[in-house]
Design a protein that fits this description.
heterotrimer; A alpha+beta; B alpha/beta; C alpha/beta; A: alpha+beta; 12 helices; 12% strand; globular; C: alpha/beta; three-stranded antiparallel β-sheet; Putative phosphonate transport system ATP-binding protein (chain B); ATP binding (chain B)
């Protein structure tokens, strides 16, 4: 008797064993500890935390190890764990301007209050592959950084050269919602969009951001500011009646300054695109701010001509857990629908051949002149 | 038929782009079976007017009323429940119903009014299907009939408009807009962009169909010859305002406003 | 700092999430065929692999339930095995392969051949819940079309098929009209299975995890496969019996048996096939006994 589809259970067990074996490598090399991944592969850990929407370097490192380095698999692990965690409450917005940055650069002004600070960056390193890494000593900084670092956009804001970061009067900060807990429908609010972008796939956002620079939705961007640093997270505790600090997280923030020519009602001024991402993720934060600005086309009455300006296109396809799942599901069995298509295509081919046979015999039988298709005559 | 009231009644209607009016203080009544041409140069506000009449643009001032029954009323098209309803008070559902049953729109660019990669028969049949037709043979017969009426060869019924010439596309668009027997059709420069001889043939076709079906039409054109050929009445627009209106023959033969005189003489000289 | 301990809730989904899903299900039952948005959670399998079905099942399953999971009609395909094992692990539910013993059946791409009865729930895994998606990709627009009951576009697609092929060329995920109101995607089940949805005594629930939509067909609801009066819907048929159990009028898998184009046809519903074959054997042995007696 036919048993080809039998044995699924055993096959799965075998596959799992093989996978574990592949993940172990040769048995005499030591296993990597998650602490090593956390500390020595910080950028990768950042990416898993950002796209996994969970700030926890330990868990992200463990997920990466369990996923044998497959980033999207690690993100999926982290998210499937995150979703089971209860949400105790919400934190007030983090204050990224009030805290000293480890890194802070602006492309718009040569010198800014608080100064330009390169910090830990791959920029200006020579990308020369070396055999062994060495840890260099960090020289003590020339000037201790204790100057406040006001946002560059705030400097422009003094003369209203840039749009305000919130509507002027009568504005109460609306509850931004939580797209991991509440159903979302298009069109989204900007807050929801930013949430989606912040957990979106780095590669996808990079390509979209890049496309806006190449004329597909150009918005003339300048990096107003990129900063990386640790911010304090506070938690509103109803029992106490005020916010309590609960820890610090590292974030990367980018404010992109964009040209806007104005409209009948609004004077020309600069506009903003915003990016905020967990950990060290400069590329992602910059891409996010480009795409955020492109998606604000409705607010500025800009024509929608490019993918990066299309909210449904961008948001519906930016989530890599969804994308990879649906692309990869194609390897699941589809015998049943394929069978339905097989039956159909055989039928269509049979009908095609019948039609052709009829046509050929008709052509033989008579010497009808070709019926020229009537085109429009001038 | 209840003809003691106009089909469409426009009073002091205007639309604003920012702080500038695209058109303003436009008033007229359109009666069943009447063809009204709106003429003017580019930028005169004629397209803006068409936009607010067809609910594509917001009415910022004045009122536009259309004679119809409320969707939930039992009166039907010609029943006693018909009244002149302010268009801006209609729900989206009611407006969409009007587009399915009462109104047509012929675009200058056929690609905006047709599904270019659906067959001609499918294009003409779609409004019928949208109105609940569920018999393939009847839908196809009706589509065939209409393609014939607009002089599309029968064997092209299964070809897509993408493979048609400009004139044929316009004729398919007209068939798609007339197949459900609307009462009012908006036309936006339906013949411009076509060769002169093709234009003449298409205008002839439009004129005879409109007369046969007793359609009310608002046609926007920059071409006075088009207005002369098919319209009963003409509005002349300049800088967003109506500067002259009246029976087409009167307006074109005996223009009162200096601007109209200029327009007419330029045609004669041209 | 102590290392974090990873713990999962009993039944995987927390009770609050289950309530969210149940509320969406109730709304879906109240408006048959309407796609209810819900805050779809991540579950420990990839999106597109039944995450919607898993969330629905997790929200309706109880300790007294018996679960059957099929993929392509079979209980033993790998993804079905994986999902069944998941529920055995996290929900402690009893499982079965027998359609007539299950209270909940989670399925991908098939409706069992054994007729369903009252008090059974059929949970469909849905990849694309929007029947108009391939005609109009924009959700803002398709939601409006559903709200205003504007389905002309769907019929244009069917019209084009008939004009081109002389019949409707759609063999799976064949659109249906539910309770005379909403056009609905039955998920990629073959059109062969469509008639089983009509007036089914069982409750049919649909979960699309990636697309964050839930919808439902309550028991004894009209489900009409779209078509024209003169070109009505025709479910696909097979003009041969199953070569294992001899059943006719069932959905068949074509199984390649050699590299010269040889194939055999057998039931896609493995539970139905096994039991029919078994009954036939029993019948034969009874017949033989009677003859000998």
């Amino acid at each position: 008797m036919y048993v080809a589809v039998k044995g699924g259970e055993k096959a799965i067990a075998n596959a799992h064993a093989l996978l574990a074996k592949r993940g172990r490598g040769t048995a005499d090399s030591p296993r990597i500890g998650y602490e090593q991944v956390r500390d020595q592969m910080g950028v990768l850990v950042s990416r898993v935390m950002a796209e996994g929407s969970l700030y926890d370097p330990d868990l992200a490192a463990k997920a990466l190890l369990q996923a044998q380095g497959d980033v999207l698999e690690a993100v999926t692990l982290l998210r499937s764990y995150r979703t089971t965690l209860p949400r105790f409450g919400i934190t007030p917005a983090v204050d990224t301007a009030g805290l000293p940055s480890e890194r802070r650069v602006s492309a718009t002004f040569k010198d800014i209050p608080g100064g330009q600070q390169l910090g830990a960056t791959f920029d200006y390193t020579h990308r020369l592959l070396v055999d062994e890494l060495e840890t260099t000593d960090v020289p003590p900084p020339d000037v201790p950084v204790d100057e406040p670092m006001p946002r560059v956009a705030a400097l422009l804001g003094v003369d209203a050269l840039i749009e305000s970061d919130r509507p002027a009067e009568g504005w109460t900060d609306p509850d931004p919602g939580d797209l991991t807990r509440e159903p979302t429908v298009f069109p989204m609010t900007r807050a929801e969009r930013l949430q989606a972008l912040s957990r979106g796939d780095e590669g996808f956002l990079l390509s979209l951001g890049y496309s806006t620079q190449r004329g597909f939705g150009n918005n003339h961007p300048f990096v107003g500011e990129v900063r990386v640093g640790e911010v304090e997270v506070e938690f509103e505790v109803p029992e106490i009646g005020h916010a309590m600090p609960i820890g610090r997280i590292e974030v990367t923030e980018c404010e992109m300054v964009n040209q806007f020519v104005g409209s009948a009602d609004v004077a020309p001024q600069f506009t903003r695109g915003y990016g905020l991402v967990f950990g060290r993720a400069e590329r992602k934060a910059m891409s996010m701010s480009l795409v955020d600005r492109a998606l604000r086309r409705d607010e500025f009455g800009e024509r929608s001509v490019s993918p990066a300006q299309d909210e449904e296109f961008v948001i519906a396809h930016s989530d890599n857990v969804q994308a990879t799942g649906f692309v990869e599901h194609l390897k699941l069995p589809h015998y049943v629908d394929f069978q339905a298509e097989l039956v159909l295509i055989r039928k269509l081919r049979r009908e095609f051949q019948e039609r052709q046979a009829t046509r050929e015999s008709a052509a033989h039988d008579s010497t009808r002149e070709d019926t020229n298709r009537l085109e429009e005559n001038a | 038929m209840n003809d003691d009231r106009p089909l469409l009644s426009v009073t002091d209607a205007g639309h604003r782009y920012g702080d500038r009016f695209g058109c303003r203080n436009v008033s007229f009544d359109l009666w069943p079976g009447e063809v009204l041409a709106v003429v003017g140069e580019s930028g005169s506000g004629k397209s803006t007017l068409l936009g607010i009449l067809s609910q594509r643009l917001r009415v910022d001032e004045g009122s536009i009323r259309y004679r119809t029954a409320r969707a939930d009323g039992s009166g039907g098209r010609e029943g006693s429940a018909e009244e002149l309803l302010e268009l801006s008070t209609l729900s989206e559902r009611e407006v969409r119903r009007l587009w399915r049953t009462d109104w047509g729109f012929v675009h200058q660019n056929a690609a905006e009014g047709l599904r270019m990669h659906v067959s001609a028969g499918g294009n003409v049949g779609e409004p019928l299907m949208a109105n609940g037709w569920r018999h393939y043979g009847q839908i196809r017969a009706k589509a065939e009939e209409w393609l014939r009426r607009v002089e599309i060869p029968a064997e092209r019924i299964d070809d897509t408009p993408a493979t048609f010439s400009g004139g044929m596309r316009q004729r398919v668009q007209i068939a798609r807009n007339l197949v459900f027997e609307p009462r009012l059709v908006f036309m936006d420069e339906p013949t411009s962009g076509l060769d002169v001889s093709v234009q003449a043939r298409l205008l002839d076709l439009i004129r005879s169909l409109v007369a046969e079906l007793g359609l009310a039409v608002v046609i926007v054109t920059h071409d006075l010859a088009v207005a002369r050929l098919i319209s009963h009445r003409t509005l002349v627009m300049k800088d967003g305002a109506v500067i002259e209106s009246g029976l087409t023959d009167r307006v074109l033969d005996d223009p009162q406003a200096a601007y109209t005189q200029l327009l007419v003489s330029s045609i004669l000289q041209g | 700092m102590s290392a974090p301990r990873i713990v999962y809730n009993e039944g995987y989904l927390d009770e609050q999430t289950k309530r969210v899903v149940r509320r969406a299900l109730l709304k879906g039952v109240a408006i048959p065929g309407f796609q209810v948005p819900f805050a779809s959670r991540e579950v420990p399998m990839p999106r597109g692999w039944g995450t919607g079905g898993v969330q629905v099942t997790a929200s309706v399953i109880g300790p007294e339930d018996t679960l059957k999971v099929i993929d392509q009609g079979a209980d033993d395909t790998t993804n079905a095995v994986s999902i069944r094992a998941f529920f055995e692990k996290v929900a402690g539910a009893a499982s079965t392969t027998r359609t007539d013993q299950a209270t909940i059946i989670q399925t991908r791409h098939r409706i069992p051949e054994t007729p369903l009865v009252e008090n059974q729930i059929l949970v469909y895994q849905v990849p694309i819940p929007e029947p108009l998606r391939m005609l109009e990709p924009r959700e803002t627009e398709t939601r409006r079309l559903h709200a205003l009951e504007e389905y002309g576009l769907m019929y244009v697609k069917l019209y084009e098929d008939i004009a081109k092929y002389g019949h409707i060329a759609r063999t799976y995920d064949y659109p249906v009209l539910v309770n005379g109101r909403y056009v609905m995607a039955p998920s990629p089940t073959p059109s062969f299975d469509n008639p089983k949805m009509h007036q089914s005594p069982a409750l049919q629930l649909f979960g699309a995890g990636r697309e964050k939509r839930i919808y439902a067909i309550p028991p004894y609801t009209d489900v009409e496969s779209l078509g024209f009066e003169d070109y009505p819907f025709e479910p696909q048929r097979f003009d041969r019996p199953c070569e294992i159990c001899g059943s006719t009028g069932v959905y068949l898998d074509e199984i390649i048996i050699d590299d010269r184009g040889g194939a055999m046809f057998a039931c896609s519903d493995t539970d139905y096939c096994e039991r029919t074959a078994q009954q036939r054997t029993e019948q034969q042995s009874t017949d033989t006994k009677e003859v000998t007696a």
